[in-house]
Amino acid sequence: MKKCDKIKPLFFSYFNHELSRDEELSLETHLQTCPDCKSEFDTIQAVWESLGNLPEPPVDPIVITQFTNMLNSYQEAGPRKTYLQQLIANFSNFFNQLGQRHYYPRFAYSLLLILISFSLGYYFSRVSDAGGNYAHHDKSSVIADKADKKDLFTLLNSPYAPVRLRAVAYSNDLPSLDSTIVYALITTLNNDTNDNVRLAALESLSRLSHNPYVRQELIKSLTNQESPIVQVALIDLMLELQEKRSIKYFKKMLKRNSLNSIVKSRITETIQKLG
Amino acid sequence: MNYNRDANDLTDNSLMEKVKGGNAQLLTVLFMRYHKDIYRFIFRFVRHKEESQDLLQTVFYRVLKYKHTYKENYEFRTWLYQITRNVVSDNFKKNGLVYYSDENSLADKADDSLLIDQEIEKQQQIDSLNLALDKLSFNDREVIILSRFQNLGYVEIAKILNSTEGAVRVKLHRAINELKLILHPKSTK
Questions:
Q1: C-beta atoms surrounding B186 within 10 Å
Q2: Residue B173 lies in a domain
């Protein structure tokens, strides 16, 4: 009986192929000689395998948006270190390292004072820019250095198309996008005056086309586009997504007299393929 | 822009150390790594989509809230599962053991005349198995979910449950026997 008690807990490792060859052999030999254990082994194996047949629960991508919202509200509510506090923390670290190397404390103290003065100057110049005007800074370095949502909005509204283009490209590098950024990208897709910026926004949004809201906005955007190059890109996306709801919008577009002939034939082709 | 690429190369533990140090944004990388496993773990318990989504956010909120308790020598994944376990357990204490109607259960598909016999049989098996799991105690259900659906080794499960590897195997054996008795009431242990 003692042998049985030792063998039984090994059943699961046996199912998972986690036993050594010797252990497997010992278990198999025991099962051949002990009908009680064999019967228990068979029923447990049946239950174990049926559990394996349970379908894996699907995960709705909306949880990513929910997470971003949770994180944003946590960061807004929680104590946040200001830029100045972070700088001081970095400098005090540096100061400690200097101390370990037996430099004169007075020298380190003067250096700290100078650095604080500089950082204060930078901090206040930044505060005065908080209204959203980055005209004094090199824009590309702002994009690279500040992984900040507010900056992204400011840049998306910049009067300079290359800056807006970089802002849209930057949104691709964020690990996830919250609903406000998605909304800003949709606005850019529908209203930006520059073709390339709208195309970039389309590319970013097409990555999120599994989201029902984004998908709906992409379809609706068909009739908002005037530029043939953006129209063609959207039409191709609809085909790629096999989006039958777009047909209604294609038909509306076909009614326009101003529609480019290439776009017209692309739409007709796509309607056939989708239908 | 290399910020995100670099963060993706970091280990779980060093990311969590940075989150603890005040860079909450980096929790996003950990969320992307684990949210599917954690969601499925929760869903196996509550089998309700919206409730599972809420509890998933609660888990990651608690990671932020209790980040100061994270120690360098902790295995992040084990710690995350321990938090999840507490969140699910708190939910059970609040709402009790609830028997859920699965969104995909046969009852909801009854009108679908396209279901062929084979599918009906398969769905019946799934339904009865889910119902049987519902009837298990929290601890029995937990050990089955961790070992059968989460692809975790017994050593890690033991750490999550604050137990030993041998004890986990014994618990699992008992839990599966309980499940067997619910599924086939006439059989003996």
A1: 5
A2: no
